[in-house]
Amino acid sequence: MYIASVPQAAFLAFLWLQSLESTWATPARTQGFLAIPLTKTYNLPSSQLDEPNALFANGGELAGTIQSPTADAIHSLGLDIEGDDYGYVASMLIGTPPRPFRLLVDSGSSYLWVGGEGCVMGDGSGDCSNHTLIGPQSSSTFKDTGAPFFVKYGSGPVAGHIVSDHVNFAGIDVKDLTFAVALKESRHYGLKSTLYDGILGLARLLPGQSSFPPLIDTLYEQGFIKDPIVSYKIPRRADHLDDGEVAIGAMNPAKYKAATVITLPNIGTQRFWEVSLQRVVVNGLRMTWGTRSAVLDSGSTFILGPRKDIAKVHTAIPGAQYQNGTWAVPCHTDVIISFTFGDRTFPIPARDLPFKPVDKNDPDGLCLSRIGELQGSTDSRWIVGDVFLKNIYFSTHLGKNEISIAELA
């Protein structure tokens, strides 16, 4: 999830904070892996989906516990899907007694936060009681430091306090984890239609950027995981495979082709997992432009880039049209787009490009493109979300500040 303030125009692109609906299940231990179901859900009213220019990103979910895990284990959060491949959410048990909290799994932001007791919406339109909240009334182990917390996403700010409490997820049990609670949320997060209770940020933070560390730093420093690694296998609803996963502590060799792994330096200077984007090819035509980079963001449904780049991409797609600030492509396009990283090329199948029909009465006509303009962007950075990520396996290593990408198994 890209943390920035942008206009809500054609692509409400920076809403890299979205949703879930969770089903609890018993985790399975297989070859050292802990598999825990996670649910993905769209979190906005269907009326907003009918707007041709309203594009959003979303979330999924995890659940379950397992006793006495080792640091060598891969703590695996299984991913399931609702909606048309929008986003992914997880569930953690927090507090005493433990209660499940639904969290957006987001490689593009760094903080873990949930709603706090007494939370209200910043516009004064109501409280956050549609969501699970944490505080001294619901948890006997809750501790409020009183230190302020504030973060601003594209969909609005969140403000509250830094706290600690008992947290259990994916076979990991932390007695006194530091995280944040939101006491004032922008309206987007407080709405009943927002089906998650907080954000699980899995990006990094540099020293001095925060008064509490990201989750992965804590798990590694306290010996819960052997290596500060998070790995992603993003599923596709149309495949009906239920094979999505976020693995904490390692890469899962069952999910990727070992011979295809490339490991690249993270060139991001801030929180993002960012790599050099060598080449983009559309319908066999190589795009010509200067240096470009790609932020790999599981919290973004779409691919977003500078206006000129996105226009050039769509110009190479037969039948593509620009309408009201948004690109549309034929709903049955056969164009394949490929990205090259580290001299290895990874294609995006044609079926992943169309999003939603511009005219719901004409499903065979034009569909909104899942590749859109990054509003206000004048630099060379692309935001590469689930449109691309569900076609690869990718992994981030906090200690080495590296990103690995591979073909799916």
UniProtKB/TrEMBL annotation:
An individual GO BP term:
proteolysis
InterPro entries to which the protein is assigned, alphabetical: Aspartic_peptidase_A1, Aspartic_peptidase_AS, Pepsin-like_dom, PEPTIDASE_A1, Peptidase_aspartic_dom_sf
Q: Which UniProt keywords apply?
A: Aspartyl protease, Disulfide bond, Hydrolase, Protease, Signal
Q: Which GO terms describe its molecular function?
A: aspartic-type endopeptidase activity
Q: List the disulfide bonds.
A: C119-C128, C331-C367
Q: Where is the Peptidase A1 domain?
A: 88-406
Report if keyword Amino-acid biosynthesis is assigned. no
User: CDD domains given for it?
Assistant: pepsin_like
Xref: PROSITE patterns: ASP_PROTEASE (PS00141), PEPTIDASE_A1 (PS51767)
Where is the signal peptide, in residue numbers? 1-25
The residues annotated as the active site are D106, D297
Q: Which family would the database say this protein is a member of?
A: Belongs to the peptidase A1 family.
Q: What is the name of the protein in this document? A: Peptidase A1 domain-containing protein
State the taxonomy lineage.
Eukaryota, Fungi, Dikarya, Basidiomycota, Agaricomycotina
